[in-house]
Amino acid sequence: MDLYEHQGKELLRRFGLRTLQGAVVDTPEEARRAAQRLGGPVAVKAQVLTGGRGKAGGIKVARSPEEAEEAAQKILGMDIRGHTVRRLLVESGADIQREMYLSVMVDRESRRPLILFSTEGGVDIEEVAETKPEAIVRLHVDPLVGLLPYQVRELTFASGLSGETAKDFGGAVQKLYEAFRGADASLVEINPLVVTGEGRVVALDAKVTVDDSSLYRHPDIAGWKDVEAADPQEHRAQEVGLQYVKLDGDVGILGNGAGLVMSTLDVVAQAGGEPANFCDVGGGADAEKIATALEIVASNENVKSVFFNIFGGITRGDEVARGLLAAIQKTGIDLPVVVRLDGTNAEEGLRLLAEGAPQNVHTEETMLDAARRAVELARDGGH
Predict the structure, then answer these.
(1) Domain closes at, from 41, 71, 92
(2) Is 348 a catalytic residue?
(3) What is the domain-level CATH number for residue 330?
(4) How confident is the model at residue 344 (pLDDT cuts 50, 70, 90)?
(5) What's the pTM value of the predicted model, to 2 decimals?
């Protein structure tokens, strides 16, 4: 679950990190009143769950309440990388002397938390990694031991700071790691982390992603979820208890079991295609759940074909076939659907498909053959 900037900053403040004063607003009039309360120059910042706000014009500096109102009028309703701006953060200005980058994330390769630090803040860390890789400090943390004092000193030395500002920076590193662990996050990022004219270390931005599986431990964070901004397919799948993740390809994928679905994604890629989603209907799915899953996958306008990969263990092949036929009859889906069905009652399921399926349903014996067929049909535009 991604948090908006203002939510991420609220989380960082809970763990003792310093941020600027600000107010979340929904209208230009509220922006003007917030600027009046804060006094002095303010930043008017679009609240969207994507990066690149500054380059898109979603962040503007206003030197008066009137300018803040005008900036809000321009930003509200703006489309930034497919996200519509519905809310703003009006934040007080800061005397910025230095900008840095600091984050903690899950390194899936080493299966440990990874701290990234760079003296090059305020720009995309990917750009820094490509142009000046020597400017990035990478430091792994043993999750059983935690962040150790010598690691904090190493990062502080790399920052080049001294005196009280160096101590403030070291404290920020420790608190950011505590926020990462305490919120069960997969990413906490501050870009930029700045040093002000008074020598204070302040988080000017906050990007936080919390592990969805941990939200039952954090009902307050779960309550921050913006249902209106959520992807419609992912939101509907969550409502009916399906595991669904939207991807960028054009081959829709359904399967029963996370391992099988992951393998299906790999086989589609091996066949030269791009998966449009991950969708696990789980074990024991009945006809109704199968139908709902197919509807959700097919509702993605990028999907050109659907690969339906089921191995019948708990899930019976005849139930799968009935669910598929019911979904097609109910929705009138005309996308090509490629079915690979094996395991319990597979023969009965294939018989039901052969007798009752429309012409857009195709069956294949092996997973690789089915993947190739689905990719081929997607390339042909569904014909």
Answers:
(1) 92
(2) no
(3) 3.40.50.261
(4) confident
(5) 0.72
